[in-house]
Amino acid sequence: MTPPDVLVHRDQALLAEAAAARLVTRIADAQAARGSASVVLTGGGVGTAVLAALAAAGARDAVDWGRLDVWWGDERFLPTGDPERNETGAREALLDRVPLDPARVHAMPAADGPDGDDPQAAAERYAAELRAAAGAGGGPVPAFDVLMLGVGPDAHVASLFPELPALRDTGAVAAVRGAPKPPPTRISLTFPSLRAADEVWLLAAGGSKAKAVGLGLAPDADPFRVPCAGARGRSRTLFLLDRAAASELPPGMGRITSP
């Protein structure tokens, strides 16, 4: 796993704008190099704010939206269109505002989908979709260019909560039951899938995230207890923070990028 870089912005609004600009550049570069790009979205306040900032940015036209694959790192196992689903927030903030190819928007199954109320079957369905996108010999997941994750106050990422069994799952996608944050039933990419991404970006804003961020950057952190410590990219890992979330960084870590 790559050691992380830490970038600190003045506040959440500036963090969202900077992350959106960075995402445009990363997608456009990948499309120029390979013809297409693949990103993994996250929910939560900061993740949704990044998508809204991207929708409002003139630079969004640098992306060829028809050649972008969109995936999710986790999802609340709720009915389609439920306001608590990450997909719902992402569509409202960005996805319904840009000309994406619907076949390349890979939402995680909902509780009213073909698997009914069985999150394990839904997780297996999403794993099969990832495997198909990876192609023959490509491994269990496709080549994600950027995978974004929010960091919870308890240091969870995606729906990988401290000390839950999903943290040790070696498959591509896990069903999560008994999550300490409602709703308790979820679907999540696993550590092996998160670590398959070229770049992993961990987003955090607000003082309630400061302790989790500090623990996640500690060199001796245990990912089973501090899940954000286990999310690292193949080529690069970025912690994108506002000043409040960066208030408990280990000494000497972090670079302020905006006044």
From TrEMBL:
Residue ranges annotated for the Glucosamine/galactosamine-6-phosphate isomerase domain, each copy included: 11-236
Keyword hit for Lipoprotein: no
Entry's family note: Belongs to the glucosamine/galactosamine-6-phosphate isomerase family. 6-phosphogluconolactonase subfamily.
Protein's name according to its UniProt entry: 6-phosphogluconolactonase
Gene: pgl
Pathway stated in the Swiss-Prot or TrEMBL entry: Carbohydrate degradation; pentose phosphate pathway; D-ribulose 5-phosphate from D-glucose 6-phosphate (oxidative stage): step 2/3
Biological-process GO terms, alphabetical: carbohydrate metabolic process; pentose-phosphate shunt
Keywords (A to Z) from UniProt: Hydrolase
Pfam families: Glucosamine_iso (PF01182)
Gene3D superfamilies, per database record: 3.40.50.1360
Molecular functions (GO terms): 6-phosphogluconolactonase activity
Functional note: Hydrolysis of 6-phosphogluconolactone to 6-phosphogluconate.
EC number: 3.1.1.31
InterPro entries: 6-phosphogluconolactonase_DevB (IPR005900), 6PGL (IPR039104), Glc/Gal-6P_isomerase (IPR006148), NagB/RpiA_transferase-like (IPR037171)
Catalytic reaction annotation: 6-phospho-D-glucono-1,5-lactone + H2O = 6-phospho-D-gluconate + H(+)
